[in-house]
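debug: dumping io for the single-chain case to check the tokenizer round-trip. Nothing else runs in this session.
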Amino acid sequence: MRFVFVLGVLVSGILHAGDSPQFRGPDGEGHSEERDLPIQWSATENVAWFKKLDGLGWSTPSIAATQIWMTTSLNEGKSLRALCLDKKSGELLRDVEIFQHDDPGSIHKKNSYASPSVLIEQDMAPGPEGNKPIRLYVHFGNLGTACLNPDGEIVWKKRLNYNHRHGPGGSPILVDDLLIISCDGIDVQYVTALNKLTGEEVWKTERKGAMAYSTPLLIEVNGERQVVSTGGEWVMGYAPKSGKELWRFQYPAGYSNVPRPVFGHGLVFVCSGYNKPFLYAVRPDGSGDVTQSHMAWKIERGAPLNPSPLLVGEELYIVSDNGIISCLNAKTGDVHWQERVGGNFSASPLYAEGRIYLLDENGKTFVIAASKEKYEDLAVNELPGRTLASIASADKSLFLRTSEGLYRLQVSK
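debug: decoded output
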């Protein structure tokens, strides 16, 4: 069977150096091609700028051309907003209120009302100006979904009907003219595709299971594209144009799934969710219920509940919520090494320049070598504040969001 990675060109237009237009970077799987990124920093060392942000949001910084986009919430979710910062200076360029709610409902203590990341669609024209944002898609779960232009003007708004209980989680993806969103509530579960220009529903595929908060992933299998969506109790593959279910794989009693899948070596790597997490390697070339036929391997010890897996070459790296870092053979699941560093982790890891950046919930980033030989700690860096948003990279810099604001970390010249 022929399997290939589907790059971000299928998700958000042509990619350019210095861009990170969606959750987990250009390819949506935590990889960066940036060079000369910092290894060490503090609140004063290797800080190009820091911008204090109002409200609370755990959306990852999304970056295209000169703009950085994030979401935030004020007044305990009553005001849901999109923020645009200048990448070079950190200056706040736009602060747009998109939705107002008298009663936005409750959320989990580790969540925010603005956790899904902004998805930036870029100009596909060739040349140095071709990476400019042309549309932005923001999602606040059932509290609202919207499209903006780069000036912050609202193009369309829509409400999706489902009860996500703990607040918004997963981010949308873009496939051609479709904005695809997983909507797994405690009441109904479905995946839907909206027309990117109008917000009108193009298709909606219902499924049974439990609540989940994961972001879909676009892959290609045997020359055909499919959207892999991790839901409560099941992970499914869908035809992106029609929403037809292609295959499904069940993990018993899984719910509140957060990690985004990753794909490689003919395998999709998915996490089963609460209460006891497993990590499964599933072959996505089947049809119907493939639970008994298409599992390549699974692990139990060290599987994450919140951080997404990271595939680098033939190794799969995972960090559990309680701070166990594991390096696995991606093809077999065999463990190369495990190291307990402690702490609590929710953010997803970032790979760049042979290094892996692992951010815990309390401002501490572990920088380790991407090596199957042994655990090698390169640096441990601390910043003040809570940290549940994943790190983004662009233009030789790391963009790290805390509960207080956004840091641009860059090697001082």
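debug: round-trip ok. The two ends are 49 Å apart (CA to CA).
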